[in-house]
Amino acid sequence: MTATIQDAARPFTGGALTALLSPATRLLGLGEPTHGVEAFPELRNEFFRHLVEHEGYRSIALESDCLSALVADAYVADGTATLDDAMNRGFSHGFGASPANRELLRWMRAHNEQRPPHERLRFYGFDGPLEITGAAPPRPALTALHDYLAAHLDLPRNRATLDELLGPDERWTNPAAMMDPAQSIGGTPETGKLRLIADDLSALLTAHAPHLTAATSPDDFWHAELHARTATGLLRYHAAMADTAPTRVGALMSLRDAMMADNLDAIVRREARFGPTLVFAHNAHLQRHQGRLDFAGTPLQWWSAGAIMGTRLGDQYAFAASTFGTRGSDVPHPDTLEGLLSPLPHPRTVIDPARLTTTLTRTPTPRTPADHTYVPLDPTATDQMDAIVFVKEI
C-alpha cells in the first residue's frame, strides 16, 4: 500500500503534537512563519494550556525583550500592577498590541492566583533589548548589575564613572546607526572601556556567586546574571554595529541569536526544578539548520538560537515549525511544500516530518514569499524538524 501525505497528518491537538516529541524534552520551540498573524499565537495559547495541564510545563518564553518581560512576569506571578500595564511595558517589537498575548497573560495570572509560588507559571522574554531600528542603550542593564554588586562588594569603579562613559542615551539609540556604521557609538573609546568594565563585573558576579546568592536570594542572583548577559551582549552588539566589513549585517544577526540562546540556556537551568519550557518565536530563530538570507545582494548565513540550543541540549531540545497555505491572494504553488499540504482536510494539522518524507517522490520546490515578513519552510530541512504544524488558511 502506497503511503500518502494523509498518513503523516493528524488534526491539530496538543496531544498529537507532543506525541512526536522526545520524552526527554526540556525546551520545546514552537515557531511561527510570520509575525502579526493572530492565528499563530492563538494556536500557541491553546498548545501551552495543554502543556501546562497535561505535560508538566511551567514556563513560556517569547521572542521579546528579556528585561521588559520582567514586568509581564511580575504581573503573571504575583499580580503586580495591572494587565494593561503588563501589556504596555512588558513586551517589545509591538507584541503588546496582540490580543493573543493579552489573553496569554490573563490566563497565566488566573492560573497562578490560587497556587503556591513553586507551582506558578513564569513568563520570560528571551530576545535582547533590540529592535529593527537598532539596539537599546546598555545603561539599565549595566547600572543594575553594578548596583547589585556594589551593595555587597568593594568595586574599583563607582556609578559616576559609568555615567560619564555612557553619556546621553541618545548616542546609543541613533536609528541611522543601523545602516551607517559611522553613526554608531560602538567604535568609540568609551564603548571599549565599558565593554571591559561589563566583562569585569560579570566575572565578579561569577566569582562571588555563593556569597551573593546567600546574601540576597537565588532569584535576585538570577536577575543579576540576566543584567550581566544583557549588558555585555548589548555592548558587543553596538561594537558590531560600528564594523564596516561587508559581513556586518550577518554578524549582527549571529550576535542576536547568540544572545537569545544564552537567555534560553539560563531559563532552562532556572526552570529545571519545575518543568519544561515552551519557547515561541519566528521559525528562523528556532530552527536547527543554518539560516540564509540575501541582503542587498550579499548572501548571509548564521546559526539560530535553536541550532545553538540543540547543540547544548541534544534531544532535550525539540522544534515544531509552523507554516500556512493560503493568505488572501497568496496561494502556494502545488509543487511547494505548502501546496502539497493544502489539500489536507483539517483547518490545522500536525505533520510527522519523518513520515512525510517517505511519501514524497522528490523534494518540493521552495515557496516564493509574497512579502518580506514571511519566511517559508525550507523543504530540504524537514529532517531537522520534530513536527510541522500546518494552518490551511490565515
From TrEMBL:
CDD domains: Ere-like. InterPro entries: Emycin_Estase, Hydrolase/PRTase-associated, UCP036794_erythomycin. It holds the Pfam family Erythro_esteras. Signal peptide: none annotated. GO terms for biological process: response to antibiotic. This is Erythromycin esterase superfamily protein.
